[in-house]
UniProtKB/TrEMBL annotation:
The lineage of its organism: Bacteria, Pseudomonadati, Pseudomonadota, Gammaproteobacteria, Cellvibrionales. This is GGDEF domain. Residues 23-277 form the EAL domain. It comes from Saccharophagus degradans (strain 2-40 / ATCC 43961 / DSM 17024). It comes from the Bacteria.
Amino acid sequence: AKKSGRNTVLPYKQEYSSSLEKKIFLEEELRSAIRDEELMLYYQPIIDLSTEKIVGCEALLRWIDRAGKFVSPVDFIPVAEESGLIYELGNWINATAFKQLKLWQTLHTDMKYISVNVSPHQLQNADFVKDIQRLLDIHNVDPRHIQLEITEGTFLQESLNTQSQLRILGEMGFRLAIDDFGTGYSSLAYLKRFAVDVIKIDRSFVMDLEDDPADRDIVKAIIAMTTSLGFDTLVEGVETREQSLIVGALGCGYGQGYLYGKPTFADDYAEQYIGLKSV
Ligand code: C2E
Ligand code: CA
Ligand code: CA
Ligand code: CA
């Protein structure tokens, strides 16, 4: 790739000479993206498999840069985490989702909850509970209508801030979801200590479900285990009718994936899934 000088405007599709260079570039861009409000939340429906009704949705962060190009959260969330920007960003995500939930609930929809992703870095900050309480107050939202998606590993972290805040969030009434389940430590007994509501089974187990009997056995075992511990189960990344039928037959309660609906921006979501025209 051609080297650019400090004050040259970098082209968006540049190749970076190193991953460090890419990271530094992304971090600077992300700072200005937050400032210039280039970020938005998309929403993806979550389905009750027994009734096929939508019960809620997951908020997923999107960055559309000045050139109109989508930057994947898989690329920029880690950058936000390493730079500490994730804390401020996380508060913005929570505020935006709470405001959206309030609006949709006011319009008399039967949305039970909005699910937001919480990075382990956010929970290490001792102010997390205080800040999220303030946001609940500002937007007049009941924590029982907010689900926090937290990866397995976070629950096993020895950080006292994380441990105590996870407990307090459960006591406050937030719904707690274990995200990407099966990819990490898989200590279900440990999870029992927290007020966990639902286990989200990672997409990697669902992808080849039709053809791979081993995956089917794994999913079956996870559902049996989690159900016996009293957690609900949700499968992520359901793309085909057959996958949906298989996980339903295995006793899984909830599903999410392109089959039921792709993540989309708020107005589009309202129109497609809750029958509201441009609100
Ligand atoms: P995740 O939390 O596991 O989110 C699910 C990802 O799977 C999303 O990708 C979603 O668009 C995608 N997905 C949903 N259904 C299907 C399907 O049927 N097939 C396939 N192939 N993919 C499906 P997305 O939005 O690109 O997000 C990627 C990851 O970035 C998320 O994984 C999460 O770890 C992170 N992320 C996204 N938004 C946020 C956020 O607001 N905060 C934090 N901390 N992380 C976020
Ligand atoms: Ca998630
Ligand atoms: Ca997930
Ligand atoms: Ca994932």
